[in-house]
Predict the 3D structure of the following.
Amino acid sequence: MKKLLLIISLFACSLQMVQAQDDLLSSLDKENPIPTDEPVTATFKGTRIITGHSVENMRKRHLDFLISHRFGKVSDGAYNFYGLDQATIRLGLEYGLTDRLMIGLGRSSFEKTFDSFLKYKLLRQTTESTPISISLFGSAALRTLKYTGTDCDYLNNTDRLAYTGQMLIARKFNESFSFQITPTIVHRNLVETKDDKNNVFACGFAGRIKLSRRVSFNIEYFYVIPSTKSPNTHNNLSMGFDIETGGHVFQLHFTNSQSMLEKGFIADTRGDWGNKDIYYGFNISRTFSFKK
């Protein structure tokens, strides 16, 4: 009987000690709560979805060297090696001034164009309180190709300039799916004919579906408001794959625009998927860190 009373007493003491420990841990949790509202990362795998920008920025003191290729139309056949004989290229540098603000410079062989841009992450999606990410994007492009048309002449460098403003609104729904909407305005200082509009309004829609740990499928579409659309142009549709290879992100895609700048692939896409005007292309990027 005495042994039984002793066992019961020890058991009761143990319960009291466990309860006291739980109370102490609860008190510590209240004083130092575990953070649950964390920023959502990797909505997209690069600063580009395909041709258009994503909400992603370069991190502070990180430099990205981006090489983009667009070949000729696949429908040109074997004579032009299914477009591979007609390559155009854009070389770009993108640098993170802060984790929210990045700048970029580029040179495209298509229409011999120089471009620059700023992108600022206004809002970051978090796991609890903020459902979306928002970035603001602005760019300027200077076309240096000699113009031989009859409807207008480029009189000076101001006439050759075009500007783009965008709001990038994206949400990562889960580890497998992200979606972005991109309201856009493109302003061209000088247009080629009286039927072309200086201001072009459009909205982009893009998605990313993760297929495996290193591969995703991306699709991108820009709808141009019909009243601002130039004659004989089409809405841009692109689709392709992202492949992660260590420090590189390799993007393979098909699109109906050969231009790699907003003023071109949004406001002046000449290719038509219905007529098999399809261009094969790729982007490859390499990031360098300048952190101390």
